[in-house]
Design brief:
alpha/beta; single chain
Amino acid sequence: MPADPRAVLTRPAPAPDHTVAYGEHPDQLADLRRPAGGGPARPLVVVVHGGFWRAEYDRGHTGPLAAALAAQGHPVAQLEYRRTGQPGGGWPGTLSDVVAGVSALPRLAADAMPGLVGAGAPILVGHSAGGHLALYAAATVPAAVGGVLALAPVSDLAEAYRLDLDGGAVAALLGGGPAEFPDRYAATDPRSAVPLRTRTVVVHGTLDEQVPVAMSRGFVAASRAAGGDIRLVELPECEHFGLIDPESSAWPEITTAFRSLHEDH
C-alpha cells in the first residue's frame, strides 16, 4: 500500500474516452471508458464517487479505479452529480441525480460506444458516500441496478449523523438530523430499506477511520436477517482509501468481490 493512502485521490489517470450528459446541469454527466480487449460486450459498470457528498470532491479521484476496471474488459462510466455546497445539491438534488444517471447511462454509453456495452442492468461500484448513493439507487430503482459493490459505504445515515462523520456531512446532505427530517431519513437511509432486492457485496477495511467498519457489520447483519442477498468482506490492515486504489494490497480482494457480482449477473 502507498505510504500515503490518500495518494490515489490525486493520482493521474488516462483521460476518459467520452463524456455524456444525462441532464442539463453541468454536473449531470459521466465520463466513459472503453473496455480493453476484444471480449464479448458486458453490462456497464457505473462508478459512484465518494467525498461525503461535498462539492470539493468530484469524480476525478475515481480515475485510477475506473481505468483499472476498463483494463479488465468492462465498459465503465464515472458518474458525476450535484453535491452539497452547490446550487441544487443536497436534498433532493444529489439523490435524484444519481437515480437519473444510473437509469440513463446504459443507453447513453451504448450509443457512445456501439457494440461494447452489453444488455442488462449496470453493476454499481460506490465508495464511501458513493456507496450510500449506490445502495440508495438500488433501493429506489431496483430494476435499473444489476448489482452493487459497496466499498466502505455510509450505509446508516442516522448513525452517521449521530457520529458526526466528516463534521456534519449527513446534516448538510439532508438539511438536518433525523429528529428534524424523519421522512428524509426514511426515504434515503439504506438501513431503512433492508432487504435490498439487488445482489450486494460490501467491502470494508478494519482500519477505516472515515467510515467505521461497525456500520457495515450492522447493515449487512440487518440485511441478511431480513433475507437480503448480501455479504460482507472485511479486510484487515486496510483503511478507507485502499479500497479504490489499484496499487493497494486490497485491490485483488476488490476485483474478486467485483467478479463475484459480475459472473452471476
